[in-house]
Design goal:
The complex is a heterodimer of chains A (251) and B (287).
Chain A lengths: L2 E12 L2 E12 L3 E5 L6 H8 L7 E6 L2 E2 L5 H7 L1 E3 L12 H9 L6 H14 L15 H13 L5 E5 L7 H16 L3 E5 L3 H5 L4 E6 L2 E6 L1 H5 L2 H8 L4 H11 L1
Parallel strand pairs in A: 3-8, 3-9, 6-7, 7-8
Antiparallel strand pairs in A: 1-2, 1-4, 4-5, 9-10
Chain B lengths: L1 H32 L6 H19 L3 H24 L7 H23 L14 E4 L2 E4 H23 L1 H11 L1 H6 L4 H24 L8 H16 L4 H21 L5 H15 L9
Antiparallel strand pairs in B: 1-2
Helix pairs in contact in B: 1-5, 1-8, 1-9, 1-10, 2-3, 2-4, 2-8, 2-9, 3-8, 5-6, 5-8, 6-8, 9-10, 9-11, 10-11
Classes of the chains: A alpha/beta (251), B mainly alpha (287).
């Protein structure tokens, strides 16, 4: 069984607004999927549906073969789905070590084991010398990294990263890309929501494009950026001139 | 004069530890779920009655009743959460205030109905008596109560910082959604916070019952003081509540001794006003 996540015709409404409309796709084990689209396209809603912060109105979501469409975030986490937030939400009053320990506690009942595991993960994420610092004293880039570390500590098979590269400088984006590849090496399947194109295009195996709540394209990064519908969604009809500029900037 | 002053300070410290224990549950419930439990002092009253009846009916000394009442109050806290608090968890703050205030009136009314308004007292306990040291007299029940309060506060702090469950509780207190992503069931953590919060005020009630009258309104005064302590220490801060409890205890006895006993609560409540004006987040709280 190679299919880790199956999203089947899901629809999520908020009152009259259809944030996600009849979206389907499959994520295979070990893949990195990029989820892109203009602001308000429904990317974060889709994340929230997969993580079960929202329950879908229609359709089904299967993870490792079991139906999770009406599950809860804590159950999903136990099943092996991790996620981060668009706006960082680390436990600010806790130390770096404690933050990662909270994640590690999910599969390590004893504080000693959780601590050992948290130290291992901290080392991977470059926090070895910052274990005792309060999370609130870290830079935003570090806090974003800590959030990923905390999620990784729960041993996810599927990790949803919501704009971990937004607001980072070029160097930090580079580090972030390396980090994502490191996660892939650990056998974690990833879905990334990202606005930073150069970050995502170089590492994604496949890209899914949302616009106005609907999936308008899916395929390799190269195919997707040459797709007319995608260019239209990003730039509108009139900006064909911009098209060349856009594609070359990404390539 | 110095002897009496020293005596006063010691008794202020002793009662301060107990205030801290009463306040810890209040600040914990607030810290974890942002709900102010106005009925907090009345759980103290319930625990004191439990202790009294266990003594009156079965001859249990408060020290023997302690574990029994602690378990009972833990259960009562959990039941309160599931029955009354859970339905209003996302309600506006005003509704939450009405609910816990209603609970206060209900508990006091129930106590008056069941046990009359008489003042009752456990006459003689294992811990009755005094000890003398350095010319200062210590009431044994007060010392036991203070020691119990210190131990209890220490255990709660250790639990929150060093255990899996305690850290999960702190995570929920900081960010419920993020905690759920770590696989933590926030609903169960809320129930746990109510259990521990009410159990700790229950312990304080039993300790208090060995040297204080039991009557349906007894929670009013202690509940009010608990609010002052929590405000001074910082809402949600447990170390803050501990320090503030001691300060409030000292202010109470010293103002009673140096100025006038009838005015002592005025000074305690003045602390509250001072905190609100000068440092609304309290000593160790956050803005």
């Amino acid at each position: 069984m190679n299919e880790l996540l199956i999203v089947q015709n899901i629809t999520k409404r908020f009152g009259g607004l259809q944030a996600n409309n009849n979206i389907s796709f499959v994520v295979n084990k070990g893949e990195i999927i990029g989820l892109i689209g203009p602001n308000g396209a429904g990317k974060t809603t889709l994340f929230n549906c997969i993580a079960c912060f929202y329950n879908v109105d229609e359709g089904k979501i299967f993870f490792k073969g079991s139906d999770i469409s009406q599950s809860t975030p804590q159950r999903n986490c136990q099943l092996g789905i991790g996620r981060t937030f668009q706006i960082v939400r680390v436990f600010k009053d806790m130390t770096v070590l404690e933050n990662i320990m909270i994640g590690a506690f999910l599969r390590n009942k004893h504080p000693r084991d959780a601590k050992r595991k948290a130290m291992d993960i901290a080392a991977i994420f470059g926090f070895a010398h910052k274990l005792q610092l309060k999370a609130s004293s870290l830079t935003i880039a570090e806090q974003k990294r800590l959030e990923v570390a905390r999620a990784v500590a729960t041993d996810p098979e599927l990790l949803l990263l919501d704009e971990t590269m937004a607001g980072l400088n070029v160097q930090e984006v580079k580090e972030s890309v390396e980090l994502v590849l490191k996660l892939k090496e650990r056998g974690i399947t990833l879905i990334l929501v990202e606005h930073v194109m150069e970050g995502i295009m170089s590492i994604a195996d496949r890209v899914i494009v949302l616009d106005d709540g609907e999936k308008i394209a899916e395929g390799s990064p190269r195919d997707v950026i040459n797709n007319d519908k995608v260019i239209q969604a990003y730039f509108g009809d009139k900006y064909h001139a911009k098209r060349r500029e856009f594609t070359t900037s990404i390539q | 004069m110095e002897g009496i002053l020293a005596q006063t300070i010691v008794s202020g410290l002793l009662i301060g530890f107990l205030y801290a224990l009463i306040a810890v549950g209040l600040t914990m419930i607030f810290g974890v779920m942002d709900i102010v439990n106005f009925a907090h002092g009345d759980y103290l009253m319930v625990a004191m009655y439990f202790s009294f009846w266990l003594f009156f009916l079965f001859g249990f000394d408060p020290l023997f009743s302690l574990p029994i009442v602690t378990i009972l109050l833990f259960g009562l806290g959990v039941i309160t959460y599931y029955l009354i608090i859970r339905p209003i968890i996302n309600a506006p703050m005003l509704s939450q205030i009405f609910v816990t205030f209603g609970l206060l009136i209900f508990l006091r009314g129930l106590a008056q109905f069941l046990w009359k308004v008489d003042y009752r007292m456990i006459p003689q306990t294992l811990s009755s008596g005094n000890i003398e040291a350095f010319g200062i007299y210590f009431g044994k029940p007060q010392i036991i109560a203070a020691a119990g309060a210190v131990i209890c506060n220490g255990v709660i702090l250790w639990f929150l910082k060093k255990t899996r469950l305690g850290m999960a509780l702190e995570a929920v207190a900081e960010d419920k959604e993020a905690a759920r992503l770590m696989g933590i069931d926030s609903d169960r953590m809320y129930a746990l916070a109510w259990g521990i919060g009410i159990a700790s005020v229950g312990i304080a009630g039993v300790l208090l019952s060995s040297f204080y009258y039991v009557f349906p309104e007894v929670g009013a005064n202690f509940g009010l003081i608990a609010f002052v302590v929590v405000a001074l220490g910082g809402f949600g801060s447990i170390p803050g509540a501990f320090i503030a409890g001691i300060i409030v205890g000292l202010v109470e006895v010293l103002s009673g001794f140096l100025i006038a006993p009838s005015l002592k609560f005025m000074f305690v409540l003045a602390i509250y006003l001072a905190v609100v004006f000068v440092r609304p987040q309290g000593l160790l709280g956050h803005k």
